[in-house]
Specification:
This protein folds into two domains: 46 residues; 124 residues, Serine Threonine Protein Phosphatase 5, Tetratricopeptide repeat, CATH 1.25.40.10. 75% of the residues lie in helices and 0% in strands. The chain has eight helices and no strands. Helix 2 runs parallel beside helix 4, helix 3 packs antiparallel against helix 4 and helix 6 packs antiparallel against helix 7. 25% of the residues are buried.
């Protein structure tokens, strides 16, 4: 073979190897991204949730399971089956067995949602107020306002929306958007 032909093949081989390495790195990065996304959706916080959401971690091998958050998941399954009494009983038992503030907050929120699904709106408000008393977060006050609006208690809804606004982080862009939405809700209720 001529020198020119060998040089082209050597460059082609280098190009193939370089391309394979780049593709391999891209695939690894994609895999890491998918894993991170899955962990965010399915719960990567084995000690409990601090953002007002519940995580079912029963499928994650090797991570400790939080019985209170499992109770929330079990209650949701009971609600899906139409067994509200069992759902509330499961949540009440979980409340008696935990001292963790984040868990109590999540459980009270779930009790409120369950009562809302049953259209027991006064009980839902009470559960959301208990969540707010446990941990003063905007989500609890938004839930109170939502139910108060449903039952026509405009003043409680307005007061709860205002409380939620007061708890928002003014330096967070998402909070600014939420603040605007809540202010619009207050304006609608004030008409």
């Amino acid at each position: 073979m001529s020198k020119e032909r060998k040089g082209k093949r050597a460059i082609s081989r280098k190009a193939i190897i370089t391309t394979a390495i780049v593709v391999g790195i891209a695939l690894v990065a994609l895999g890491i991204g998918l894993l991170a996304s899955w962990l965010l959706q399915n719960g990567s916080n084995p000690g409990g949730s601090s953002n007002g959401t519940s995580n079912d971690q029963s499928g994650l091998i090797g991570l400790p399971q939080n019985p209170q958050l499992k109770a929330v998941t079990d209650a949701q399954k009971s609600v899906d089956q139409g067994d509200y009494t069992k759902a509330q009983s499961t949540l009440d038992t979980a409340l008696k067995t935990t001292t963790n503030t984040d868990d109590k907050f999540d459980i009270y929120l779930e009790k409120g949602v369950t009562y809302e699904n049953e259209q027991k709106y006064n009980d839902a408000i009470t559960a959301y107020q208990q969540a707010a008393a446990t941990k003063s977060l905007p989500s609890a006050y938004q839930a109170i306002a939502r139910v108060a609006t449903t039952i026509g208690n405009k003043q409680l809804a307005i007061d709860s929306y205002n409380k939620a606004i007061s708890l928002l982080n003014p330096n967070d862009a998402r909070s600014a958007s939420l603040k605007q939405t809540l202010q619009e809700q207050i304006q609608e209720l004030s008409q």
